[in-house]
Design brief:
- The protein is globular and about 45 Å long.
- The protein is mainly alpha-helical.
- Strands 1-2 form a two-stranded antiparallel ribbon.
- Helix 8 runs antiparallel to helix 9.
- Helix content is about 70%, strand content about 0%.
- It has ten helices and two strands, in the order H-H-H-H-H-H-H-H-E-E-H-H.
Amino acid sequence: GRFDLTTTDIVCGLAVVTMFIYGLMGADDWWRFPFQSMWVREDLDIWRLVTWPIATQPDAWGVLGIVFFWVFGQNLEGMFGRDRFLVWLLSVALVPAAIVTALGTFSTEIDTTNGHYGLSMVFTCGIWVLAATYPNARWFDVVPLWAVAAVFTLLDLLQYNGNGMTGRVIFVLLAVATALVSGRTLGQASG
């Protein structure tokens, strides 16, 4: 038979690999993947601009992030098509990271609050795109999808703001905005 491997499958597989890197090789090797703007600027760790979504620590929340992204990612990839989904995914990874990296040159407060976001952040961005594409869609036929996206985003923003993580607050807002703008540009999120 023929096995069709999707972009979503590859991204989720890479996230699982980073869990094994963390567990078998140690946290120091794993820390090569998460986003840290000062390391992008000062050490030229450019790959961090696009590897942060796959950086997943081996815990239950990391596994849930992978599973949720895989379920919604399949829907998004089917909706966008393979090539446009890859463009969307790369824009959601690259644009907020690049902007926060640039903003970090003006404020150390932004630089010191970067870090681990993983597929959970991309999952939240995907929910926003699905909710904007299908405004009447409901999660489990009860809760409007836009409300789910708003709650997940609000929880991130409250946690990061409460912890004084200005860079993360900016990152989340930029990621959601990028997801919606690039989704619309690519023919979705127009509901």
